[in-house]
Fold this protein.
Amino acid sequence: MPVLMVATYNDNDSVNVMNAAWGTMQARDTVALQLTESHKTVKNIKKRGAFTVSIADVNHVIEADYFGVVSGNKVTNKFENSGLTSSKADTVNAPVINEFPICLECEFIEYQDNAYGCGVIGKVVNITADENVMIDEKIDMSLVNAIAFDPYTHGYYKVAERVGDAFQDGLQIKK
């Protein structure tokens, strides 16, 4: 599963970030994050109406893991402790973590809580990417050095090599 960094502003405008390995795109412009309401991040999202989702990379695996093992409810300066930096997002009231290569700026749509899970639904209104992961003005995922989480071994793995073309390779066996 992708390792996602979800960032918000706290009540005092300090930065809060959490590691969310349980998230996905529901559509091209919609994210779904499986987060419980007890997370400081969810409380902030509901108050501010916005958040960012960054893709964690190999160069920042320690910081990404730290954001998952320390609660913003208990450690109010956990972002400062990480040594990372932030800037304000271009389109939403949420921080961008400058060191992560890709960032989705999201408007909060709703919080869902039902028998099949709970979570934050957001609309992606802007995407930013570091120049180092761009080729011909497009993101090249092989340059991102994204990390993925394996819940069975509790390991992080580097995702770097393209192995096929979606919606194309399978046509070879279609009759």
Q: What stands out?
A: The mean pLDDT is 92. The longest helix spans residues 40-48. The chain is about 15% helix and 40% strand.
